[in-house]
Amino acid sequence: MSKQVHFFATPVDLKSVLSRVEADVKVQYVPNGLFEIGTLHSTQSLAEASNLGINLTGKPFGAGGFFVLSRGKQVPLKQSKLAYSQGLKEEFDGDKSHDWIYFEPGGVAEIPEQKIRIVVGKLGITKQTIESESLYRVFKKHISKCFEKFEHRSLIGNDAKSKLFTSEIVW
User: Fold this and answer.
1) Which of 19, 79, 20, 76 minimizes the C-alpha distance to 52?
2) pLDDT exceeding 90 applies to what percent of the chain?
3) Residue 132 to residue 80: CA distance in whole angstroms
4) At 171, is the secondary structure helix, strand, or coil?
5) Closest CA to 71 of 31, 44, 38, 101
6) Is residue 118 within 8 Å of residue 7, measured between CB atoms?
7) Which residue of 47, 68, 114, 118 lies most exposed, with the fewest beta carbons within 10 A?
């Protein structure tokens, strides 16, 4: 059974949550996308990433998500069937293992000639295994502790909320 949590957060909010998550559980983040063979690398922390919560596209989904696995787990990869015209690529293979969750930070997007917009983030799980359910619970626990309930069953971080209500950022 799949489930997900939607949230609105600024880089400040995300750093707070991920610092707590990463202190609680050792994880690795694998970026979503197509990569040259042998160049896909995971990272052990997003909390200190300089571009955390900066959405470069302004789109609510598909803008810089990560597969999250326990640290030390082998990252399952497959060759991409989508990009043969661009040369052979590889990507994360979520079918080889279901011991992962998906995290898309969302954040803020600076769109030329517009106000800074807040972009929805999400935490999701598609297949429940002991491992994926444990990761999901840890992330959800810290998101729920750091954020408050907001419209339509989503959550919002304190910094995002204050900036929305002072019109520093818009929907």
Assistant:
1) 19
2) 54
3) 24
4) coil
5) 44
6) no
7) 114
**Spatial separation of the C-alpha atoms in residues 44 and 47, rounded to whole Å:** 9
pLDDT band at residue 108 under the 50/70/90 scheme: confident
Q: Which residue in this structure is represented by tokens 């043969």?
A: 84
Could you read off the pLDDT of 17-71 as tens digits, one per residue? Answer: 999 999 999 999 999 988 888 888 899 999 988 888 888 776 666 667 999 999 9
| C-beta of residue 101 within 8 angstroms of C-beta of residue 136 | yes
Q: How far apart are CA 97 and CA 84, in angstroms?
A: 24
Contacts of 126 (CB under 8 A, 6+ apart): 2, 94, 98, 102
For residue 104, what are its two tokens?
């898309």
Residue 96 has pLDDT above 60, yes or no: yes
Length of the chain: 171
Angstrom distance (rounded) from CA 3 to CA 125: 6
